[in-house]
Amino acid sequence: MTESADPAERAMILSQDGWGRIIALIAAADGDIAGAEDALSTALERAVTAWRAHGPPANPEGWLYRVALNARRDVWRSAAARTSTPLDEETIDRIDGGTDPAHHDPDALPDRRLELLAACAHPDIDPPARPLLMLSAVMGMTAKQIAAAMALPVATVSARLTRAKKRIAGLGVAFGSPDRLDLESRLPDVFETIYGAFAIEWAQAAAQPREGMIGEALYLSRLVAELCPGDGESHGLAALIHLSAARFPARRSGDGRFVPLTDQYPDRWDGTLTEAGERHLAWVHRCGHVGRFGLEAAIQLLHMAGIRTGSTDWPMLLRLHDDLAQVAPSLGGSVSRAAILAEVEGPETGLAALDALAADSPRLSAFQPAWVLRAHLLTRLGRTDEAATARRRALDLTTDPAEREYLSVGLT
Asked: How many CB atoms lie within 10 A of CB 119?
């Protein structure tokens, strides 16, 4: 985003990057997520007019927060609200000085996103709706983005979100500081949302991810680990996100070409994020419990170590994948295991594992990584015509232009 961007575009981008913080703080007063989102929409509409006429303020996010808060306060103080809704006057009247929204510092706001995540994971909210609600309200994902990532119709996602928001408001969920036991019981949903937001951003970013979303996922993963220091999966999630984010600068060459992990230069990885990921992974072992995210982080680190040294411990990677299949079986994990098996026992064995997986999972026919692996293994076996067919199918399923260009090299 540049300073010359259209004010409407600036307003939308800024609201998405700061969505969770603004929504969480405003909704904390009455638990009405939909009302908080409506208030932010009002602020966006006013921003388009005001910023086009006078230019964006020095502190755009603070401007949006204050205008949204004022819009929500108008609703709270309306005659209808006074007769039907108990107000939290302390929350409503807590204003951090000054009357100009542009002077409000969003960095001074209390961060209540984790409380909102816990509220969205309330046991009375339908389980399928919880991650959708958290991705939308806290992480700023649109219904279209969520639907694409979860292979669901947009209408289904929108309907579930509407019902879940009404349920939250109807429950009168108090945000406050979440009870530690409540938080710990809801951690699996919180983990899935934080990692889901990171994965969606990673997959959809053509060259560089929106700094705000990657930063939010990193921040929230650290926050959960700090609040639950004895929980191994909290540190496992933080380790996985930090190690993944560390590799992002290396997955594109200087001219924008896609660079697979095996061809990346370790000196282009972010050393600070790598070290943080290693520290969190060490805490996983100290906690004595290694779950899905801890195993995935260990797999990630072992791959990175192999690239650094030129010698990958494939048998250890296979053991980790076997453990992951027991703890959290998934289509992606099964395909990755087939790739590792090919390195340990040969491409024929890896291809056989992939064929067996295809027989058990009809979804594999639309899973792009499976076709990329099939093309690779068939090439190693000298079955060039079949490899070309598999690569064409992988290309049909690839949306990233840089990755499409990489896969199409040498294909006629």
From this structure: 28
Among candidate residues 185, 202, 174, the one with its CA nearest the CA of residue 130: 185
Q: Give the model confidence (pLDDT) of 5-24 as tens digits.
A: 555 555 555 545 566 777 77
**Residue 258: strand pairing partners:** 252
Distance, in Å, from the CA atom of 411 to the CA atom of 309, rounded to the nearest integer, reads 32
Residue 105, pLDDT score: 46
CA distances from 35 to 71, 83, 176 (A): 10, 17, 18
Q: Report yes or no: 211 and 174 within 8 Å, Cβ to Cβ.
A: no
Model's pTM, two decimal places? 0.72
Residue 167 has what pLDDT? 79
- 11-39 b/e with 16+ CB inside 10 Å = b? beebbbbbbbbbbbbbbbbbbbbbbbbbb
Instruction: Give the Cα separation of 230 and 226 in Å (integer).
Output: 9
* Residue among 155, 162, 227 at smallest CA distance from 191: 227
- In angstroms, the CA 243 to CA 258 distance is 19
Q: What is the mean pLDDT of residues 237-250?
A: 93
Amino acid in the structure at residue 224:
V
Query: Which residues lie below 8 Å from residue 361, measured CB to CB, with a gap of 6+?
Result: 331, 334
The dihedral of CA 294, 300, 301, 302: what is its sign? positive
Token pair 């306060």 is at which residue?
73
CB 199 within 8 A of CB 253: no
The amino acid at 234: S
Phi/psi at 258 (nearest 5 deg)?
-70, 135
pLDDT score at 209: 47
- Look at residue 312 and tell me whether its pLDDT is greater than 90: yes
- On whether the CB atoms of residues 222 and 157 are closer than 8 A, the answer is no
- What is the 3-class SS of 247-305, one letter each residue? HHHHCECCCCCECCHHHCCHHHCCHHHHHHHHHHHHHHHHHCCCCHHHHHHHHHHHHHH
What is the structure's pLDDT at 296? Answer: 97
The domain ranges of the chain are 1-92, 112-216, 229-312
**pLDDT by residue (tens digit) across 204-221?**
654 444 455 677 788 889
Q: What is the DSSP string of 74-136?
A: HHHTSHHHHHH----HHHHH---S-S-GGG--GGGS---HHHHHHHHT-TTS-TTHHHHHHHH
